[in-house]
Amino acid sequence: MNNEFRRALFPGSFDPFTRGHADIVERGLKLFDHITIAVGHNEQKRGWIPIEERVRALREFYKDEPRVQVESYDTLTVDFARRIDVHFILRGIRSINDYEYELQIADINHDLSGIETVVLFAQPGLANVSSSIIRELAHYGRDIREWLPEGLTYQI
After folding, report:
1. Residue 156 counted as domain residue
2. What pTM was estimated for this model as a whole?
3. Catalytic residues
4. What pLDDT is recorded for position 128?
5. Which of these, 32, 115, 145, 147, could form a disulfide with 8 (CB 3.0-4.6 Å)?
6. Is 96 within a domain?
């Protein structure tokens, strides 16, 4: 990769940032010089942690890592990627079952924008619980801290 193309966008979900997500960022930093974690706005999928709180928590979590930036966005992922001048979208998956879907999304993103997608697996022990499962556990009053990266806290 040329130096000018070593920036990636890691689009977030509307649920908590998990140990698996943190592992994807760590693995991504071995490939890219800079990663922007993007927390999306979507009226239909607001999530249970306010966007502003999620961005604040992630910025605090990565405050000592100058290669990671955290932003929020309210456009198509590829439009945001072009706006911040990244040439790769970084996606994390939990299992091989997610892979085919991610490849389809990668093809769509490439057709729309020419932006390539890099798909990484999180380590198995870190990827086994998804953000949506954490949301459900929290809904039923379960302690979710074991699934969050150490040091990441949300004020909810």
Report:
1. no
2. 0.87
3. 21, 45, 94, 131
4. 75
5. 32
6. yes
